[in-house]
Amino acid sequence: MKSFRTLYWIFFLSGATGLVYEVIWVRLTGLVFGNTSHAIAVVLGAFMAGLALGSWKLGRYADRSSSPLRLYGLLEIGIGISAALVPFVFRALDSIYWAVTPSIQGIPGGNVALRFLTSFVVLLVPTFLMGGTLPVLARFFTQTVQEVQRKVGLLYALNTFGAAFGTLAAALILIPRLGNTRSALMIAAVNVAIGVFAMVLANRWAETKDTEYEFGPEVQSDAAGDATPVDATTSRLVLMTLAGSGFVSMLYEVA
Q1: Cβ–Cβ under 8 Å, residues 111 and 105
Q2: Domain of 46, in residue numbers
Q3: Whole-angstrom Cα distance, residue 128 to residue 136?
């Protein structure tokens, strides 16, 4: 169980690294656009789209994975590598922008659209991988409906508190002392270390099969059996409400 508590702290740290990247990326895209509003819009758009797509696609894959913890480790390593490349990709794109700009000056909004789309795509890769970490780790921790109700909420809370910590650390400590690129590389190293640790732990548990870490057989919650089925119209309304809530929340953040 001590290892489980260690994983909880690791997921807190993972949330912190994600928001350090977000603060750095806002600064980098601000240099691309020369406009803070555009930079925030691109980073938030890519961040939330990546999280949503990663959670959707990788979450479904996690249910079929024989080792969710090993998959989580691979995701963290992928986040670290792709996020470490972002500052260098932006530098390379800057020279491309200057070369392409004369040919698209006649297109209204063409220059802004090019910078928006390329920046969005670059940031979508690490954020897609970030989106898969919560459902993958949740799959590792939960085998029953009761565990989903209790542990997924805890994982999300830890990850979000980590995000708050990462935002403050990036703005007040890391960037003022190390700058954008060195901060990104240091945090990327943290992600890779988290991934390696998770994979080592997964391999150790697979070899020892210690009953302390074994989950019991999957059981179905009694509450789930008594639940009243929800009709399709109600389901669509709930999903539309959630989408609207997310839309308004991002408007608030940009404003």
Answers
A1: yes
A2: 2-222
A3: 13
